[in-house]
Target: tRNA/rRNA cytosine-C5-methylase RsmB
Amino acid sequence: MSQIRSAKPLPSVFNDSVVIDAITPAQKRALSYATTIEMLFNQVMNSRMPADRIIGQYFREHKKHGSKDRRVIRESLFALFRWWGWLSQLQSEQPHVTWFKQLSACAALEQHAWQDITQAWDNIAAWPTTEHPPANSNSLNDKLALFQSLSGLADCQPSDLLPSWFWQTCPVAPSEQLAVVEAMTTRPPIWARVQSIKTPTAISQLSKAGIEAVASQYFTDAISLGHKSINLNEVDSYKQGHIEIQDLASQVIGQICQPGADQIWWDACSGAGGKTLQLRSLMLQQNSKSTGTITASDIRNKPLEELSKRAKRAGFNNISVAPWKSDTLPVSEGIFDGVLVDAPCSCTGTWRRNPDMRWLDDVSAVSDKRALQLDILTRSAAAVKAGGQLVYATCSLSPSENEHVVEAFLAQTNEFELLPVIHPFTGELCNMLTVWPQQADSDGMFVAKMRRK
Model:
């Protein structure tokens, strides 16, 4: 265990014996931040637990951190995972120098605002030259040039920023690869959905609360809340149930379902109910006296309890829960106008929000769920009545979890037929729809729509 000495002793997790003189308050904070961030980074990598869970627990246990501290630690940690495909290639004879090079390069790529901290990291990193192009553009090619200039690693490629197994399991046309990586190295905005009130009214209410919301060009009830952190519990529109946080790609699923105002739907894998609430909202948009009903099911009770709270906050009736307790359907067979199966998956489509997962998972995250997905889809299909809809969705970008599952399902039954759908962001007519993150600044998503003959 190394010792870092300053006017105030600091804990250290560096692996070699080194003394770093910290004279100014900024240098002391920089060393303290570096120690904390490395501890959290290693904890995530070693435990294979999601970074947001690790850092959430850390902040609950260390309430001494102010808002700036929390921002520096959180944004630096997630940025490290975002750029780890390049940063992991940095090497030095001294491990502590390697770590500060990674912090320094990461801060440059992200254009972090805390210059006093990043300058201290730069000094310890001891780059061979300070003459490097500024990262004054969000262009991935410009960021690549910056990193190559800093590191001297001329062979780095944009594709390095995603694990090799991603390219093997999620085929991307060569012409789109750069756009995919560029999207994956940026954070999407906070997308929300307006319910029970008109979108202009919601935008006006949010503006009065100091939140700049922008209406989506694709869906009348979708709004972007930008990239700044928001304490929703202090926002009246949220507390009154007028907005729900839901990514734009996720909203595509409800728009493809298009439930009728008086139809009966089953959300077979509802989780905490974001899509359940969207289905009910779409029913009420058509008729404020809608008699339609939605049953939500999940194998976990806690998300269903959260769904009930959210439905109550929104003032939505006609939503009930039916937990999966065994392989037996928790609902009656053959009675639903529509069944939505948002199946468990690798979640590769959510990597923009969870950049750590691309390095915590391996190819088995994609390959080990297909049998489960097909089983859930097959069993849930029994609940669809004649002429009813069956919608299969995942937040995966891999055909093996998407098209291949639907094709396997249709191959084993002649009772269902595939319905073509229109891609909401491109206008293309598709047999099955994959939303890529770069198409509308959102997560990635897959959806296929079928009908019982």
Notes: The mean pLDDT is 92. The first helix runs from residue 25 to 47.
